[in-house]
Amino acid sequence: MSKKLFVGNLPFSFKTEDLQRAFQAVGEVVSANVVTDRETGRSRGFGFVEMASDQDAENAISQLNGSEQQGRKITVSEANSKPPRRDDRGGGGGGGGPRRPRY
């Protein structure tokens, strides 16, 4: 079963290919993604890697957490599950406040 890892403090020059290459050295990578800003396309300094097995994930955490990548010490940990997304508008239709009488 695959396991997803969070990778923080990435160099801003890091691309998805760089992330995948770094993790392939310690195990089988299912997917890798450097998170980028929607407007600028620049790296946000973190990403996610999905390893093929729990053992590969544990190896990646033990060998790469605290390792230096392009002059920065990266953090590697098991990714937290994403909480359900909440609608910021408060749910269903209707508007706020009391109804106004119609004249």
Please explain how this structure is put together.
By secondary structure, this protein is of the alpha+beta class. The chain is 19% helix and 30% strand. The protein has two helices and six strands, in the order βαββαβββ. It has helices at 16-24, 54-64, and strands at residues 3-8, 29-36, 43-51, 68-69, 72-73, 75-78. The strands form two sheets. Strands 2-3-1-6 form a four-stranded antiparallel sheet, covered by helices on one side. The model has no long low-confidence stretch (mean pLDDT 89).
- Main beta sheet: 4 strands, antiparallel
CATH level-two architecture of the domain at 3-44 and 63-78:
2-Layer Sandwich
Overall mean confidence score, pLDDT: 89
Tell me the CATH superfamily of the domain at 3-44 and 63-78.
RRM (RNA recognition motif) domain
**Tally of strands:** 6
Given the C-alpha coordinates, what overall shape results? elongated
Helix share bin? 10-25%
Oligomeric status: single chain
Task: Give the termini distance in whole angstroms.
Answer: 65 Å
Share of β-strand residues = 25-35%
Which strand order spans the largest sheet, edge to edge or round the barrel?
Answer: 2-3-1-6
Number of helices: 2
Poorly predicted tracts of residues: none
**H/E topology pattern:** EHEEHEEE
